[in-house]
Design a protein that fits this description.
about 425 residues, alpha/beta, Nucleotidyltransferase, domain 5, eight-stranded mixed β-sheet
Length: about 425
């Protein structure tokens, strides 16, 4: 059984083809510059040279046509025909309050996703375009929606409500939703196994740190609070997003510089965070290298990011009433030992003690690694995330009728026999 996973952005379509029987990705790639010009596909098959083809894609349907043509190509493909694709899974960024789990897409579901697109105007419209395009290209297979927000729908009202006019919540759905749900789900369940405790008894803080960053407090396997909010802009400092700031700053700058709402939104999302402070970099490797060479703004960016991570760890430990484990994941969380070290400095009073040498020599390639010292009351793990596996297992389970709420569903990676 081959499952095609699609992640449609406004000007790109990322894809993976997963062979469920062999439990492996057999092809992946991206179509870039969709709807713009000079579009092209980058296609990768394990064990082969990467393939690139220029092909104009004025819309998502043409892009998905190109993906299917490449996957079934005699020279570069991995399947004989489209009939070998059993289902298509679609990443949908925002499900609002309507979706607490993955679902098979029908017209009612598509209409519901469209109803909340105002909550994610940069993400949901291209997600919808991708779904409709894929349905047109592959009309005879099931299409499944996997929501970034679903895992966080267990948050209590006191965690997700903002101290704003209640009418805004009732009329426009203004509340905290949270994102990166599949990542937080995966690493928290893996952490529970490493703790040797049922997840129902665990208090875990998960730190997903990539270009986008979100932190989550998880009690009993459920998200009780998370750093991203109505949109992915709130919370931690990120590559180009500001995260938490004084809400009076945007109208102040709009008044001072004559910015429009659209312009200030672009600045907060695309020109802030690490890029805003350094003026040059979004990649932590560049920031760390230049900080070591004496660049003061790069050093400041590292200090700000690490300090803000530390504050979230403290806040979530308080919200949880204690913590059993802290988990670092995603590209930066798995590879930037210096940021992990700075974020955990001086937390010994909380029972967090790291093995500094082990921490600085731990990377994604080492797999799941405990970086806390033997005498640390709180365990600290680096756990490479696997959102794609959650994605595919949801799709397969929906197809065979075994799918359930994540607190009851027996994911393969919750078994002691599972090897990442």
């Amino acid at each position: 059984m081959d499952i095609l996973a699609l992640n449609c952005g406004s000007s790109s379509v990322k894809y993976q083809l997963f062979n469920w029987d062999e439990k492996r990705v057999i092809a992946k790639g991206i179509v870039e510059r969709v709807t713009i010009s000079d579009s092209f596909i980058k296609h990768e098959v394990p064990g082969k040279d990467a393939y690139k083809e220029e092909h104009e894609c004025p819309d998502h349907k043409v892009a998905i046509d190109l993906i299917i043509r490449t996957l079934t190509s005699k020279e570069h493909g991995v399947v004989g025909s489209m009939e070998e694709i059993s289902a298509v899974g679609h990443r949908v960024v925002h499900g609002g309050e309507k979706f607490t789990c993955s679902v098979q897409i029908n017209q009612e579901v598509l209409d519901a996703i469209r109803e909340v697109q105002h909550l994610a105007p940069l993400h949901n419209p291209p997600n919808i375009s991708g779904i409709e395009a894929a349905q047109a290209v592959l009309p005879n297979v099931p299409h499944i929606a996997i929501f970034d927000t679903a895992f966080h729908q267990s948050m209590p009202p006191h965690a997700y409500m903002y101290p704003l006019p209640y009418d805004w919540y009732e009329e426009y759905g203004v509340r905290r939703y949270g994102f990166h749900g599949t990542s937080h789900l995966y690493v928290s369940k893996r952490a529970a196994l490493k703790l040797g405790k049922p997840i129902e008894e665990c208090k875990i803080i998960t730190l997903h740190i990539g270009n986008g960053v979100s932190h989550t407090a998880i009690a009993g396997g459920k998200s009780i609070d998370t750093s991203m909010g109505l949109t992915p802009l709130e919370g931690a400092m990120m590559g180009t997003r500001c995260g938490d700031i004084d809400p009076a700053i945007p109208p102040f700058i709009m008044d001072q510089e004559g910015c429009t709402p659209r312009e200030i939104d672009s600045i907060l999302n695309k020109k802030s965070g690490l890029l805003g402070i350094t003026g040059r970099f979004t990649d932590r490797r560049d920031v760390i290298e230049q900080a070591a060479a004496g660049d003061e703004r790069c050093q400041l960016a590292l200090d700000v990011e690490s300090y803000r991570i530390k504050k979230y760890i403290g806040a979530y430990a308080a919200a949880l009433g204690g913590v059993d484990a802290v988990v670092f994941t995603a590209g930066v969380g798995e590879n930037a030992g210096l940021i992990r070290q700075k974020a955990l400095e001086n937390l010994e009073y909380m029972g967090i003690v790291i093995d500094k040498e082990k921490n600085l020599t731990t990377f994604s390639k080492h797999g799941e690694t405990e970086i806390s010292a033997p005498d640390s009351a709180v365990k600290v793990f680096v756990i490479p995330t696997n959102e794609e596996l959650v994605f595919v297992e949801d799709v397969v389970a929906i197809l065979n009728g075994s799918y359930d709420d994540h607190t009851r569903f027996p994911y393969s990676f919750t078994s002691p026999d599972y090897t990442p």
